[in-house]
Amino acid sequence: MADIIPNRDARRLFLNLHALSDSPGRPFRRKDLPALIHRIGFVQVDSIRTVERAHHHILFSRATAYKPEWLHHHIERERTLFENWTHDASVIPVEFYRYWKPKFSRTRARLMSRDWWRERLGEDYEETCARIRAHIIENGPVRSRDLTVGESHHDGSDENKAWWGWKPSKSALEHLWRTGELAVSAREGFQKVYDIASNVVPAEHFDPVVHDAEFIDWACRSALERLGFATPGELAAYWDAISPAEAKSWAEQQTAETAISVEVENADGSLRQHLARPDALDLMAGAPTPPGRIRFLSPFDPALRDRKRLQRLFGYDYRIEVFVPEAQREYGYYVFPMLEGDKLVGRIDMKADRSAGVLRVQKHWLEPRLSLTAQRKARMEAELVRWVKYLGLERAEGDGFDVAL
């Protein structure tokens, strides 16, 4: 009979594995950053800066001593991290690069099966890619704007378009990056600087060859290590690197030494069977109580990425409404989930008004049956002060809040 993991213990194990049970105010230095990212697996990169870009927000939520330049240092100088694609653009530990090589092959086949990519690369995409490779080899790293000046779009027009209207050279750069021929060597502002991958990734991580069976085994094992317990579908979705069928086949081959069967209690009291890492029960018993403070999490936090799992485990229904027409939004454009201890207790809509030096709280919502007690309000105010300080602002105000440094 499978062991049962009570819901509260499941939440605490999951949060601990995602580095959300440690005190965010603990001593934390630049050299500690790669280990933190290795622990949580990846950090999604996103350009929206309503408060702070997602990659910096995710790390600050776990370590308030974190500084954005530390991430650039490890990507661009130490080369302990690299940028590529999980389910979206992400920062990933460089020791995982060898496992991205078989993923690159899969990505190449998938992208070239899509009309969207073939249209934007153009009919002579092989010639375009060859031209870009030769240009970088001869002239060094490039930005997309170095190659697209005066270039027409795939439909022959010259007008400015949104990101999905990339010109052929931009499309080729992204394609070569997604498929492993190029790597991001740096960023200028938020713009990628591309170079030949072997110039960026240290040879010890670039050279090893990983075959398909080893790749599938790594994708499942490493996902299970970070999730603690998972269904085959959740294992496949973690890195977005293998198919659910491959994860299911892997799960069926495991023994008690590599994975155990458990039943996890959902937030509604129902049970669901999962595969768990063999030490899950010991880890669960030793999982610390998460800090009682409130944290505003990024919508792209890796602990929130799987929305269905989030709802089952925490009873928390969340979606980001960036692409929802304003009139149809339930909450707001860019709303942050609020974590209090081991529970998601609400959400907050806030925006940094940098010119005025103010973090504007536009609205907040608590989950059903929860109220804004004096203690909870004090915890929210403390988190607002932390963000004001981190962002270099002077105060936070709005929706009943008014705090300053």
Write structural notes for this entry:
By secondary structure, this protein is α+β, with helices and mostly antiparallel strands. The chain is built from 17 helices and 15 strands. It starts with a strand and ends with a strand.
Give me the secondary-structure topology.
Elements: E1 3-5, H1 7-17, H2 33-40, E2 43-44, H3 54-62, H4 68-78, E3 81-85, E4 89-93, H5 97-112, H6 115-121, H7 125-139, H8 145-148, H9 168-178, E5 182-188, E6 191-196, H10 197-200, H11 203-206, H12 212-227, E7 229-230, H13 232-239, H14 244-252, E8 260-265, E9 271-276, H15 280-286, E10 294-296, H16 307-314, E11 335-340, E12 343-353, E13 358-366, H17 374-391, E14 395-398, E15 401-404
Parallel strand pairs: 1-8, 13-14
Antiparallel strand pairs: 2-4, 3-4, 5-6, 7-9, 8-9, 10-11, 11-12, 12-13, 14-15
Tally of DSSP β-strands: 15
Cα separation of the termini:
55 Å
Q: Which class of secondary structure composition applies to the elements?
A: alpha+beta
Side-by-side strand order of the widest sheet: 10-11-12-13-14-15
The shape, in one word, is: globular
Helix percentage: 40-55%
Instruction: Average the pLDDT over all residues and give the rounded result.
Output: 94
Radius of gyration: 22 Å
| Beta strand % | 15-25%
Low-confidence stretches: none
Mind describing the biggest β-sheet?
6 strands, mixed
SS field, number of helical segments: 17
Summarize it.
With 405 residues, the protein is α+β, with helices and mostly antiparallel strands. The protein contains 17 helices and 15 strands.
